[in-house]
Amino acid sequence: MEPHSSFDLGKAIATWRAELARHPGPAPADLRELEAHLREAFAELLRTGLSAEEAFLIARHRIGPTEPVAAEFAKRIPQGVWRSRIFWLIFAFWGQFWWRGSAGTLLALTHRGSSIQFYSRDWMYNGFIRAEGTLLSFIPLLVAIFWLARGVPKTVASLLSTRSRVAATTLGMMLLLYALRLALNVLNPLMGTNPVDVYTSYVVPAFQIALLIWLTPGQKPFPANVKTSIA
Amino acid sequence: MFSRELIAASARPLLLSILAEGESYGYALAQRARQLSQEQVQWTDGMLYPVLHRLEDEELIASEWRESETGRERKYYRLTRTGRRALEKEKAQWLAAHHTLTQLWNPTPAST
């Protein structure tokens, strides 16, 4: 048997906590609570005469395997998640406006005299269909979102599993906006305004909205597909 | 041995009932559940917390981080008034289910 001194409780807890945190489910407050539980169980098991390492292993085992436990936390969907999603959505759009303005200035400076135009103001009409501008406006946003969703590799993996949902939402929105476009083109001449290029003015932003809703982190940004049971 | 579904379904009334005895914290709740079920229910302690949090979202219980006498920090849960009412409802339902089944399983001597 190894001597007790070779076991470092702090380190063991940190490793275990980090493993839990890699999954999208538990929030920092949940980890704090689980750690309190682990320490409590550890202390009690230690009193029964087990070695520190044995006590830790049993305490950890009682809490359960990290993946299903984390997934159970991910199943919690309070309204708070939607509040947080909407908050990030608004934040993302605001950030995009801000960045678009800067990127527009940047592009105008670097592409002076070339045929590339980037209208930071007419973004609805021009900005979105210019690949360069779109890329520029999206990269920092995506980086921020993934960073905020914590655990980048896991996020990317979970994103794939929700791909069908992103697609369905987007498709639904596009159909809706196609109907809107038809309606608008009928209405515009009646109202004496010019027909709007609805594709660029509504469809592309709608696509981005759909994407952003599913990308924005909440406490449960990417639900894991796990069996519905608590044990 | 309880099935997974039954464990999931009974977690809610179980936790509400334990909290009806007085405020408690995660570890003690898990211990109490283990003791009450006489090891028949294979609890995974970590799974208790999401249930507790859901109950908290529904405002059936309230929580508060506090330091125990021993200096350990714990998140204490207590039943709210809404929780007490929800527990009464749960109790009525579980007793009704129990009553229905026991009529079939324990026939009165007269009917045998």
Short structural description:
The complex is a heterodimer of chains A (231) and B (112). Chain A has 231 residues and is mainly α.
Oligomer: heterodimer
Overall form of chain A: elongated
Strand order of the largest sheet of chain B: 1-3-2
The CATH architecture assignment of chain B turns out to be Orthogonal Bundle
Looking at CATH, the homologous superfamily of chain B is Winged helix-like DNA-binding domain superfamily/Winged helix DNA-binding domain
Global mean pLDDT of chain B = 87
Kindly state the number of beta strands of chain A: 0
Identify the overall geometry of chain B: globular
Rg of chain A, nearest Å = 25 Å
Helix percentage range of chain B: 55-70%
Count of separate DSSP helical elements of chain A: 9
Structural class of chain A: mainly alpha
Total domains of chain B: 1
Q: Structural class, judged by helices and strands of chain B? A: alpha+beta
Describe the structure.
The complex is a heterodimer of chains A (231) and B (112). Chain A has helices at 9-21, 28-47, 52-63, 66-74, 79-110, 131-148, 152-161, 163-191, 198-215. Chain A has 231 residues and is mainly α. Chain A folds into two domains: 4-74, no CATH class; 79-215, no CATH class. In chain A, helix 1 crosses helix 4 (66-74), helix 2 (28-47) packs across helix 3 and helix 5 (79-110) runs antiparallel to helix 6. With 112 residues, chain B is α+β, with helices and mostly antiparallel strands. Chain B has a single domain (4-107), classed as Arc Repressor Mutant, subunit A (Orthogonal Bundle), CATH 1.10.10.10. In chain B, helix 1 (4-20) packs across helix 4. The mean pLDDT of chain B is 87. Chains A and B meet through helix 2 and helix 4 of A and helix 1, helix 2, helix 3 and strand 3 of B.
